[in-house]
Amino acid sequence: MTLTAEQVVSLKLGHPVQCLLPEADAECVIVRADVFQRMREKDDGWTTEEGWAAFCEVAGPAGWDDPEMNIYDELYGEKPQP
User: Could you tell me the pTM of the whole model?
Assistant: First the structure.
């Protein structure tokens, strides 16, 4: 794999680089090993459902349950159910 000069600069700055893996029909992200390790250290082991439930518990009382916030569902799709 050969990276462009722009991709190399992005990686040097700690930014991810997206690429397409046609053989697997998959979009991939390349990050520096130290960035990946920091991401792994932040992984708390929660499932998506557990994380969403925790978010709703905090965000609901903070105003996210306000009917005016439904515009986000309309723009970005329905939120997952806990």
Answer: 0.48
